[in-house]
Design goal:
Structural class: alpha+beta
Distance between the termini: 46 Å
Mean pLDDT: 76
Number of domains: 1
Strand order of the largest sheet: 3-2-1-4
Low-confidence stretches: 109-130
Number of strands: 6
Shape: globular
Order of helices and strands: EEEHHEHEE
Oligomer: single chain
Radius of gyration: 15 Å
Length: 130
């Protein structure tokens, strides 16, 4: 067996009071997603510090043929940029929306990746009953 595949786990932004955690394979496929109440729970919820989502990873890359990598700065991470390019070329996943962000002076500050295969713009007001 060759090198294990990497699965990049990161905070894909927030939707009001909830955060969107994504796990994207080095092949560009979104393998797992979780809506979190706190960024502090993302490592657990994506399986870095637990066994959550491991069945997704095994199903995609084969039993144990993967390693999870937490990415603190997905906007500037070259691995995420490469996964984004691969994701856009896939026929079976909706493409990522790459949004150029700007700082308070209007200067380009980087990119943020939204919706890698998932809707991330839900209305938190609809969750008032929870």
């Amino acid at each position: 067996m060759g090198e294990k595949h990497e699965i990049y786990c990161f905070n894909n932004g927030d939707a009001g009071d909830m955060f969107q955690a994504l796990a994207v394979g080095d092949d560009g496929h979104v393998i797992a997603h979780h809506t979190c109440s706190s960024q502090g729970w993302m490592a657990h919820d994506l399986g870095i510090t637990s066994d959550w989502k491991h069945e997704n990873y095994n199903a995609h890359f084969g039993e144990g043929n993967w390693t999870l990598v937490w990415v603190d700065d997905p906007v500037n991470d070259e691995r995420i940029k490469k996964a984004y390019e691969l994701n856009c070329a896939l026929d079976d996943d909706p493409p990522v929306e790459a949004v150029i962000t700007h700082d308070s002076d209007g200067e380009e500050a980087g990119m943020t990746y939204k919706g890698i295969g998932y809707q991330t713009d839900f209305d938190p007001d609809e969750r008032r009953d929870r």
